[in-house]
Amino acid sequence: MSGNETEFSANMQADDETLQPFDVRDSSGRQGLIKLLIGFGILLALAFIVLKLYQPGVRDRGDPPRITADNTPFKVPPKEAGGIQTPDQDKAVFDVMDGQKPDETVTTTAAPEVPIKIPETANIKVEEPVMNRPGAEKPVIETTPEPAYTPPPREIAVPSSVAAGNSEWVVQVASVRSQADAQNVWNTLRRKHPSIVTSDFYADVRRVDLAEKGIYFRTRLAGLADKSAANQMCRALKDVGQACFVTKK
């Protein structure tokens, strides 16, 4: 080291400052207590906010929401204690209800006619019909009851223009909840209308999943040549009271 440099010594002191002793006990009492109280207050505020947010409670996804009623009153007194003015509130009908007679001229209509009562002592001769007189021959009238009209059974044969085939067009006649019911619908349809649902056509049962509504089985008449044949078949079924519509497979 050169002779111009100042050597470090433990006894060295700054020119303008004097080192002061530091005691941690003098500064840790009041300030620490204040900081502790501030932290405790912040925790209380956070706990109060959380309590307010979760006061209605916690529910599962499947439970219905709980809606709390408002604390404000649903009925309040009106600003005008006397109420509002109602139109036509001074009509004469209110005076009559209060027992007062209105100053109006009332014109009454004539009374209805009363039927005349014939005295019992009046001599009234009533001619008796000839057929009811003693000794008179009563005519004999022969009547033949008409038979009740019974309409003939209605059965419409399938039009000859309905060509059989293997197209994608079908006629849907029912939509039920099981495959067995769908087959029963087809069997009943063939039994009731054999001249329409002939052996040229067959049942096409389709299973469909309608999500929330469930699973359905649709009974459809298949074996048609084209859309025109399907429309003619559906019209023939409607003529005998069977609901249907044309669709694709």
Task: Describe, in plain words, how this protein is organized in 3D.
The chain is of the alpha+beta class and 249 residues long. It has a domain at 169-248: Alpha-Beta Plaits (2-Layer Sandwich). Helices cover 23% and strands 11% of the residues. The protein is built from 4 helices and 4 strands, in the order H-H-E-H-E-E-H-E. The protein has helices at 30-53, 92-97, 179-192, 227-239, and strands at residues 169-176, 202-209, 215-222, 245-248. A 4-stranded antiparallel beta sheet has the order 2-3-1-4, covered by helices on one side. Strand 2 (202-209) and strand 3 (215-222) form a beta hairpin.
Primary descriptors:
alpha+beta; 4 strands; 249 residues; Alpha-Beta Plaits; 4-stranded antiparallel β-sheet; 4 helices; flat; single chain
Task: Give a brief rundown of this model.
This protein is of the alpha+beta class.
Number of helices: 4
CA distance, first residue to last residue: 106 Å
Assembly type: single chain
Would you report the number of β strands? 4
Please give the share of residues in helix: 10-25%
CATH superfamily of the domain at 169-248: Sporulation related repeat
The CATH level-2 architecture of the domain at 169-248 is identified as 2-Layer Sandwich
Strand content: 5-15%
CATH fold title of the domain at 169-248: Alpha-Beta Plaits
Q: Overall pLDDT, averaged?
A: 75
Major sheet = 4 strands, antiparallel
Question: In sequence order, what are the helices and strands, one letter per element?
Answer: HHEHEEHE
